[in-house]
Amino acid sequence: MRIAFDGKRAIQNFTGLGNYSRLLISLLCQKAPQNEFFLFAPQRNSHARIMQFLKDSPLLKCYYADGIYSCIKPLWRSWFVSKQLKEKNIDIYHGLSGELPLNLSRYPQIKSVVTIHDLIFERFPQYYHAIDRNIYSYKFFKACQTADRIIAISQCTKRDIMRFYNIPEQKINVVYQGCDPVFSIPATEELKQEVRKTYNLNDRYILNVGTIEERKNILLAVKALKGVKDIKLVIIGRSTPYIKQLSQTIEELKLGDRIQILPSVPFHHLPAIYQQASLFVYPSRYEGFGIPILEALNSGIPVIACSGSCLEEAGGPHSVYVTPDDVKGLSEAMNSILSDSNMHSNMITQGKEWARQFSEEKQVNGILDVYNSILN
């Protein structure tokens, strides 16, 4: 098969969508080398992580918007790239982040797959600007209509696609994503010492990783910390205007000396930070899947998350769940896990076992099954 990918996120994004794109492309290149792989991206990026990704994917042939198209990158990606796909005799084009070229249906010889990570902008429109929400809604709906097959990254996302876009169930395959295998590899003592010194980490701390925005609901963890003694909360994530509300609450609760906010942490430091945490909390109101939960489970940390979306799929039956506004419940869960060594140890063991089902082999085989089904 000649398989092409929408490479915008893979080349430009260093969080969820970018990590998903790079990991999936690299795995397919490694484990299905009988195929030919192409990446179409609006622009180049010389960042070290991107260069390493390209080095790890030697079978990948990359094409970028150039000439006049370099001045109209969004239009190239959503329109003119289709002609290039035809010229390269592409069999399958995979939109990795909810989008496909708007005119791809004019080229019926090119089969299409789109990955939908979430439809949070449909469920919680209040978290998005009206213009952005309308653009997302149009592009995602159009992609779901156009695609020969849709990949949902969780059962929760599959249900949302069916509900909001009236897409038949048989058109949607759930293929769970995994997380970078580096989180399963014990960090060296040297690296652990380096991160402890760099970020002034305590011996015991509760960890949260994710963009600091309203939907992620980190305020719940801050309020719950008031009922938990002798431990700090470390929050890692890019800030948004929500940080003002967070900072105000921290000040009101007099928790300034117990909470560390780290807005920018290099990726290679993350595993060592995860692996030294006592507990991971992820109180998000809604997610498409919840990769940080998998990162925590693979790192050997007990997880507390919120019910109501897909987080139970990621965390499994041995993690603990509370409702998104239950401050008392989260405090009690934190105290129970931190004070009960048997519970703590059992959650680590069972969590690692649960995380094994999100293996690279299952992800690759699931994607290849989708590709084969639309060609055959």
Q: Overview of this structure, please?
A:
- The chain is of the alpha/beta class and 376 residues long.
- The protein contains 16 helices and 13 strands.
- The chain has helices spanning 8-12, 16-31, 48-55, 73-87, 120-123, 130-146, 155-165, 189-199, 218-225, 242-252, 270-275, 291-299, 311-315, 327-339, 341-355, 360-375, and strands spanning 2-6, 36-41, 60-64, 92-95, 111-116, 149-152, 172-174, 205-209, 232-236, 259-262, 279-282, 303-306, 320-322.
- Strands 3-2-1-4-5-6-7 form a seven-stranded parallel β-sheet, sandwiched between helices. A six-stranded parallel β-sheet has the order 10-9-8-11-12-13, sandwiched between helices.
- Helix 2 (16-31) crosses helix 16 (360-375) and helix 9 crosses helix 14.
- The longest helix has 17 residues, at 130-146.
- The radius of gyration is 21 Å and the shape is globular.
- The mean pLDDT is 95.
Q: Please report which band the strand proportion falls in: under 5%, 5-15%, 15-25%, 25-35%, 35-45% or over 45%.
A: 15-25%
The secondary-structure element order is: EHHEHEHEEHHEHEHEHEHEHEHEHEHHH
Distinct helical segment count? 16
Using DSSP, what is the number of strands? 13
Structural category is alpha/beta
Widest sheet: strand order? 3-2-1-4-5-6-7
Assembly type of the chains comes to: single chain
> What is the CA-atom radius of gyration, in angstroms?
21 Å
Helix residue percentage: 40-55%
Largest sheet: 7 strands, parallel
Terminal Cα span: 11 Å
- Indicate the overall shape: globular
**Low-pLDDT segments, ≥5 res:** none
Report the average pLDDT across residues.
Answer: 95
